[in-house]
Amino acid sequence: MQFLWINIFEWKYQEFLDIIKNPTKKTLVFTPNPEILVRANMDAEFLSILKKADYNTPDANGLYVGSMIQEGFGFFYSGFTTFFHKKLIQGRYGELIKGSDLTRDILEYAAQKQKHILVLDNRVEELKSEFDKKKLNVQQNLKSLLEEKYPGITVQVIFSGDMASDGIAHLIELQGISYVFSCLGMKKQESALIDIWSYLPATQEVVGLGVGASIDFLLGLQKRAPIIFQKLGLEWFYRLILEPRKRWKRIYTALVEFPRMIKSTIKN
Q: Residue 181 burial (CB < 10 Å; 0-12/13-18/19+)?
């Protein structure tokens, strides 16, 4: 798959997981979804950042729909095929590699191999909602929560603004950190990794991943959709039902703005 001249990884999930379990150099992994690609289409700086990844992996079924639209199929046919002929779609475009699944599986592997990991996150500054209170409690105990859930890993947590990029790079080298999970939100998390990576030697065996709220899901701070919704590719619908006011704009971006963007790039 390719969108906006960004190549999207098209292999099987396990094949990709095997690659990043044993990196031979510093490696960056970003997980684009339709919302990210729409933002990148309007933001040249963000687009340039995404192009610097070693791997951009498909994080949503909408990318399948977009690929079929690029090939000349209609939106409704593409959507129908994506949701009801998954084996055909996956054989053609590769399996989805979702940030939440990737984060979970890497942490499980890191626990087995007693790896060091680093988490970059935004510190909760104001308690505007009940969620903020829960998030603050998780952040205050993030190291212990992760080490308890995945015994064997050693966790370092750095909040945005607490350490400069060159200092973080030095820490990665000094502690032999294997995985860096950037949870800073769209664009900011990818940009932070790019900056840190600029201070690392090319041979440093470390993987940086932009994973959004994946760790929140793993620790139960945010509830992930039931398995049946995940398998059907309807996680977005489940979230829309639970949080319609919060989610409708993101769903609109994925279902309306993204296909519209794909059609416009075909014309251009």
A: buried
Q: Which two tokens stand for residue 194?
A: 């790019």
Q: Provide the pLDDT confidence category of residue 225 given band limits of 50, 70 and 90.
A: low
Q: Six-digit token pair at 216?
A: 């929140």
Residue range 212-224: mean pLDDT, rounded = 84
Radius of gyration for the chain, computed over Cα atoms and rounded to the nearest angstrom: 18
Strand order in the sheet with 55-56: 55-56, 27-30, 207-210, 179-182, 116-121, 154-159
> How distant, in Å, are the alpha carbons of 74, 75, 85, 161 from that of 79?
9, 6, 10, 42
Q: Is 143 among the domain residues? A: yes
Q: pTM of the entire structure?
A: 0.91
CA distance 87 to 250: 27
Q: Is residue 162 part of a domain?
A: yes
Q: Tell me, what CATH number does 206's domain have?
A: 3.40.50
**224 vs 231: CA distance, rounded Å:** 12
